[in-house]
Amino acid sequence: LTAIAAFGLLCHYYALKGVRAGNQTQLKLGGLVALVASAVAMVLQFNQIANAPFTFSSGAYASCYYLIAILNFVHLVLTVFFALGNWNRSRLGLYKSDHWHVDIVNVWWVWMTVSSLLGAFALSFS
Questions:
Q1: Is residue 30 a contact partner of residue 14, using CB atoms and an 8 Å limit?
Q2: b/e per residue, 53-74, with b = 16+ CB within 10 A?
Q3: CA–CA gap between residue 116 and residue 78 (Å, rounded)
Q4: Confidence check: pLDDT of 55 > 90
Q5: Which DSSP string corresponds to the chain?
Q6: Minimal CA–CA distance to 38: which of 81, 72, 80, 87?
Q7: Residue 76: pLDDT above 80?
Q8: Higher-pLDDT residue of 125, 11
Q9: How far is CA 75 from CA 35, 92, 108, 109, 112, in A?
């Protein structure tokens, strides 16, 4: 999941570089691939939560696992929402003169990827 999030971050950064250079096609392509990556990561996170071999009542580690995994899922849902909005606005040509929204969403992508990495690191010692 973290690798997919990192791939989405790279795609969004590619889109950001495109809009900074005035390349709307690069913005649309990078934004669309980032949107797909975030949606795939969201589905995989849901499947991981649904197929965990334990429940909330299985102990402290299981509760921490669910807390971190569910919060990562929430981050991914928000990322899909932001990526969809960014891609749709770029598709409509709203970022031709002002693209600060794309910069702000890139900050969100960085945060989401780092938080996913920290969650994966915290859960890898069982």
A1: yes
A2: eeeeeeeeeeeebbebbeebbe
A3: 13
A4: no
A5: -HHHHHHHHHHHHHHHHHHHTT-HHHHHHHHHHHHHHHHHHHHHHHHHHHT-SS-GGG-HHHHHHHHHHHHHHHHHHHHHHHHHHHHHHHHTTTTSS--HHHHHHHHHHHHHHHHHHHHHHHHT--
A6: 80
A7: yes
A8: 11
A9: 13, 26, 9, 10, 6
Amino acid at 6: A
Q: How far apart are CA 96 and CA 99, in angstroms?
A: 7
Domain range list for the chain = 2-123
pTM of this prediction exceeds 0.85: yes
| CATH class (in words) of the domain with range 2-123 | mainly alpha
- d(CA 4, CA 18) in angstroms, rounded, equals 21
Only one residue has tokens 């990561």, namely 41
Work out the mean pLDDT of the chain and round it to a whole number.
93
* Residue type at position 57: S
